[in-house]
Amino acid sequence: MADELKTDLRLAFKETGEVDLDWSQDAGAPTVSGKDNLIQALTMRLLVYRGHLDQLGHQRYGSRVADLIGEPLDRANLDLLRRYVRQALMEDPRVDEVTELSVTARADLPGAVDVRARVKAITGDAVELGLALDMG
After folding, report:
1. CATH topology classification for 2-134
2. CA-CA-CA-CA torsion for 63, 87, 91, 52, nearest 10 degrees?
3. Boundaries of every domain in the chain
4. 82 CB-contact burial (10 Å; exposed 0-12 / middle 13-18 / buried 19+)
5. pTM of this structure
């Protein structure tokens, strides 16, 4: 079943917001497979602006989350952000259904939101992901 969720190079998500290949092992870049790969792929899909990979032939890859950067985190914009997140998650062919999704403004960090999602993968596995997005 893990093969259906594919394998890719493992990425390192840094506290600075940067993403790079994970070079933490001496043997070169490690890989990630199965549910962990799907979590990584969905996270990247949310972080990449839709259309940013146009020149590489991936016009529809990414999300419209960045459209709301700098906008007030009021109820209407949080609802719109939730729709953008759901749309991006469902565009991954390994996702069968988004079963839970919450997008909440962080009281401790103005301009940031927490995204928590649970998806049903095409393998039937439940996959959970969570990330904070700086919308300021």
Report:
1. Nuclear Transport Factor 2; Chain: A, (3.10.450)
2. -10
3. 2-134
4. middle
5. 0.91
